[in-house]
Amino acid sequence: MKTSLDNQKLLDLINDARQGKLVLPQFQRNFVWSRDDITALLVSILEGHFIGSFLLLRTDSDNVPFAVRVLEGIKPSNLLMPEQMILDGQQRLTSLNYVFAAPNIPLRFTKYPYRFFLDLRQVTAKNFENAVISERSDQVGDMLERTRQFETLVVPFTEIENWNDWLNNYEQWLVERDREYYFHQYFKIDKQAWIEVMDRIRGYQVPTITIPKFNPDNPESLAEVCAIFEKMNSKGVRLSVYDLLTARLYKDGIDLHALWGEAVNKYELLYLYTDGSSEDFGVYVLRALALIRGLDVKSKTLINLSPVNFKTDWETATRFIEKALARMTSIGTDGFGAFEKKWLPYTTMVSTLAAMLHYIEKKKLDHRAYKLIQRWYWSSVFRERYAGSVESTMYRDYQDFIKASSDSAFKPEAVQDARVNIVENRAFSLLNVSRLNSVYRGVMCLVALRGAKDFRADDAIQFHTLEDHHIFPIACLANFRTPEGKKISPDRVNCVVNRTLISAQTNKLISKSCPAKYLDEIIPGDREAAILSSHYIESDALAAMYGNDFDAFLKARETALIAEINQRICG
Q1: Which residues have C-beta within 8 Å of that of residue 320, sequence separation ≥ 6?
Q2: Both 160 and 260 in a single domain?
Q3: How confident is the model over 238-285, as pLDDT tens digits?
Q4: Considering 365, 388, 423, which residue would you say is the last residue of a domain?
Q5: d(CA 214, CA 497)
Q6: Assigned domain for 428 exists
Q7: Are strands 84-88 and 22-25 parallel, antiparallel or unpaired?
Q8: pTM exceeds 0.85 for this model
Q9: Are residues 497 and 540 in the same domain?
Q10: Which helix (H) or strand (E) holds 207?
C-alpha cells in the first residue's frame, strides 16, 4: 500500500470539509481544543511556522469503509460526496473552520461560543503573539460592524476569506475620512504588512499524506493502514490501534466509545487514573483483553481482535484493570504504594498485571502466585523493563508467569535479569537517580509502603498530603564540599536517596536548615527513631544527619533502600 505526499492549502481542506468531501470516521473523538489551543495555532500560522502534517484516507461515496460524520461546526446536511477521511489533523482543521466560519457552538471549558479577530496594528508591528484576539460571542458588541473594525483596525477572521472586499471598503472609508493620511501613510506602512500576512494565511500550505482506499473487512489491508499510521503519527499506538479497531468493530455493532464510557463510570480507579475522559487508556484494556485471550499485544493482533464475545471479554479486562490499579495504588501489605497517579512507575504494566490477576482467579491459585507477581513487579520497576516499546516484554512476562505458577523451578526472565543486575551487582546504585523515572518512583513507593510518617505529625496524617522533598536541603548543601574541595553536584543533591515523603508545611518549616538543626526542632524526641525508620533512615543514617555528614548519610540510607529492593526481588 503506497501513500502519496502532497501540499495543500488549509483553506482548500476547510472548503472540502464544508462541502462534505472531507469527512471524519465515526470513531474519531470529538473536538476538544480550547481557546488557548486555537490561539496558539493561529499565531503559528501568522509567523509562518510549521503546524504539522495531515493524514488522510482516500474513499468514495459508493463504498465508504467506515461510518462517517462531518467536522463539528459544519451542518450535517452538507455531507454530500465523501472523497477523503481525516485520520490525523481533526483538531487543527476543526479549529480553523471554527475560526473562519464562527459556528454557534461553545468551546471546551466554557459555555460560550467565541469569535476570533486579527489586530492589524499588532500585525504592522510584527507582534504576532498579541495579534490574535478572542471574545465571547455575546460580548463582541459592535466589533462585527465594519465601521468599528475600520476605526480599531481589528478584522474578524470570518472576513479573511473576503479580505480584498474588506480592504477595498477600508480604503474607501479612509479616503472619505482622512485623505491626507491615506496618501502619505497608508501605502508606505500598513497595507504591505497586512497583505503579506493575509497572503500567508490564505495561501498557507500543509503536507498531506494520503493513504489509498482499502477494504476494512480485510485484516491484512487494515494492518497495512495501522502500520502506516503508527510510523507517521506521533501519538502512535493510541490512535492507530484503538481508533482503527473502533472503526472495525463498529460494523459489528460494537461501539468502543460507548464501552469506554460505561467502564469509567463503573470503575472508580479507572476514572481517577484516566481523568475520566481520556480514551488513550483504552489501549491498555485491549492489551489486557488480548493477553487474557492468550494472544500477544502487537498492533496487528489488536486490530484483528475477534468481535465474538468481545463485550464480555472487554468487561472482564476492565474489571481486572481496576483490580490491577487497586493493587498498584494500595499502600497495604499486598500493594505497590503508588498512592497518587504521579507515582505509578509505568502505566504500561497495568495490562500485564491485570492478565496475571485474572489468571490467578481463573486457576484458583494460592498466595505463591501473588509472590510471583511481587517479584515480577519490583524487578520490572527497578530494571526499567517497561520503558519504550514493551509489546514483546508484556507477552513474555505473562507467559513466564503462567509457566512459573505451575513450575517452581522455572525462573522468569524479569526476576533473573534483576538478580544479576541489581541483587548480585555491587555496582548498582541509587545515587545517580535524580530524575523522575521508574526507579525514582519505585523508591517513593517503597517509602509509602514503609508507612512514611511526616517528620512532625502523628499517625493520623492524611497520606495524600505527603510530597517528596530534600532531607538535606539544597541551601544547606550549598556550602558543603567533597573531599576534593568541590561543591556537591546537583545530581547528588537531588538524588532519590536525599529525597523522601513529608508534607509541604513541614518542608517549609525545615526551610534551609541542615538536619543537625531541624531534627531537634521538628521531630518529637521520643518518636524520632520510629518516624525516621519509616523513611529507611536507621541509626547510622540518623547519626550522619546529626553530624551533617552528607556522604555518610547517603551511603547509609542507600544501603537500607537497596536491601529492601533486594528483598522485594528475591521474595
Answers
A1: 288, 292, 354, 355, 357, 358
A2: no
A3: 345 777 788 778 778 888 888 988 999 999 999 888 865 566 688 899
A4: 423
A5: 55
A6: no
A7: parallel
A8: no
A9: yes
A10: strand 205-211
